[in-house]
Amino acid sequence: MNSLSNDDVTGLTVAVVGLGYVGLPTALALADAGATVIGVDSDRDRLRAIARGAVDLLPLHHAQLACASAGDGLRLTPDATAVGTADAVIICVPTPVDARREPDLTALSAACASVVEHAVPGQLIVLTSTSYVGTTRDLLVEPLRARGLTADEDVYVAFAPERIDPGNERHTPERTPRLVGGAGPRSTRAAAALLAPTASLVRTVADPETAEMAKLWENTYRAVNIALANELADACDALGLAPVPVIEAAATKPYGFQPFYPGPGVGGHCIPCDPHYLLWQLGKVRQQAPVVATALAANTGRPARVTDRALDLLARSAVPARGARVLLVGVAYKEGVADVRESPALEILDRLTAAGADVAYCDPLVPSVRVAAGTLHHLPDPRTRTWDLVVLHTVHPVHDLTWLRAPGAPPVLDPRQRGASAAAVTGVTTEAEVTA
């Protein structure tokens, strides 16, 4: 086994378990820094897509993928036993919630169990998947001990939460600080050295639990502030004000304020899921978190509120809901990505369909989506049809909304409170208000 020194990963073999939105950029950053990377994923279709370059990545990471694929810096395999040949293992598997909003640890438990099974002395194991406080000890440190491998002595174990903002070129992993909390000082140093080439800086903390809680709190903070922004939008509506100018005016204060914007709800891999891990664990120790719980409930209810606004606008236009032609602009959970996980658009489509509306969507990044009524497909040119209502859910940079400003254009429901203007193209996806 090689060892880490001076934050240099050249010559190291690193296994990355899970090649999704976190694992693949992590693998590419390490390969770009000189490591030999073994990409492990049980999904053979995903491996084939990566090999073809048919994956949703920023241009920088597509360039890294092309470079790694042309050489020998990245080897793809579905074989979990390959982790036994690596100097370091990074676990990057999803941690969703189930239908009851409770943690679904199926993938994480299986991945950690497999890594523990094939762990070898001297190896560094880094968990990046967001989970409850204590996960690293429960799923790695203690099972390794049961195998006779003591963390920070025989093997090195750390938690280093992912901080990836998909589709955002300003916040690539390489430009973002990274947290590392090891099972002991040697584990912390080894993990910090491994991850240093992949981040703008590495901040070490006392233990895995501190890093785990910090990650949960980052996204809980965002969830609460999004709920607050949505509440502001409702308050402004009641008072005859536009919320975005209010937010932008408040944001001129140089301290004590960070702007969040209203929208149709929350989506993606983090904000709709991670705070529920915290509430779930606090519930087990009978600790209440009423502000967090209320915010999450408010965010969950946002798609229904957007649907109600859409139906109200149709009624005000004397258009019956049954048979009304409604277009959603964008179904991805945020601008610039092809990801529909937990996207509010899916619930909005289902609710509008249940009300009898004839729904369609336009999102060039998402060829098709599965909804309750079946599969819907991207409508390339919505101008070829007549609409009773257009809902601006997610406005990608490639969307041309000028047709919505033309005479005779349909009414628009703007969940981001920004209107069908050029400014909407660069806006932040969030809540809802009617513009006609």
TrEMBL record:
<dbReference type="InterPro" id="IPR001732">
    <property type="entry name" value="UDP-Glc/GDP-Man_DH_N"/>
</dbReference>
<dbReference type="Pfam" id="PF03721">
    <property type="entry name" value="UDPG_MGDP_dh_N"/>
</dbReference>
<dbReference type="Pfam" id="PF03720">
    <property type="entry name" value="UDPG_MGDP_dh_C"/>
</dbReference>
<dbReference type="InterPro" id="IPR036220">
    <property type="entry name" value="UDP-Glc/GDP-Man_DH_C_sf"/>
</dbReference>
<feature type="compositionally biased region" description="Low complexity">
    <location>
        <begin position="419"/>
        <end position="436"/>
    </location>
</feature>
<dbReference type="InterPro" id="IPR036291">
    <property type="entry name" value="NAD(P)-bd_dom_sf"/>
</dbReference>
<dbReference type="InterPro" id="IPR028359">
    <property type="entry name" value="UDP_ManNAc/GlcNAc_DH"/>
</dbReference>
<dbReference type="Pfam" id="PF00984">
    <property type="entry name" value="UDPG_MGDP_dh"/>
</dbReference>
<keyword id="KW-0520">NAD</keyword>
<dbReference type="InterPro" id="IPR008927">
    <property type="entry name" value="6-PGluconate_DH-like_C_sf"/>
</dbReference>
<feature type="domain" description="UDP-glucose/GDP-mannose dehydrogenase C-terminal">
    <location>
        <begin position="327"/>
        <end position="415"/>
    </location>
</feature>
<feature type="region of interest" description="Disordered">
    <location>
        <begin position="164"/>
        <end position="184"/>
    </location>
</feature>
<keyword id="KW-0560">Oxidoreductase</keyword>
<protein>
    <submittedName>
        <fullName>UDP-glucose 6-dehydrogenase</fullName>
    </submittedName>
</protein>
<feature type="region of interest" description="Disordered">
    <location>
        <begin position="412"/>
        <end position="436"/>
    </location>
</feature>
<feature type="compositionally biased region" description="Basic and acidic residues">
    <location>
        <begin position="164"/>
        <end position="177"/>
    </location>
</feature>
<dbReference type="InterPro" id="IPR014027">
    <property type="entry name" value="UDP-Glc/GDP-Man_DH_C"/>
</dbReference>
<comment type="similarity">
    <text>Belongs to the UDP-glucose/GDP-mannose dehydrogenase family.</text>
</comment>
<dbReference type="InterPro" id="IPR014026">
    <property type="entry name" value="UDP-Glc/GDP-Man_DH_dimer"/>
</dbReference>
<dbReference type="InterPro" id="IPR017476">
    <property type="entry name" value="UDP-Glc/GDP-Man"/>
</dbReference>
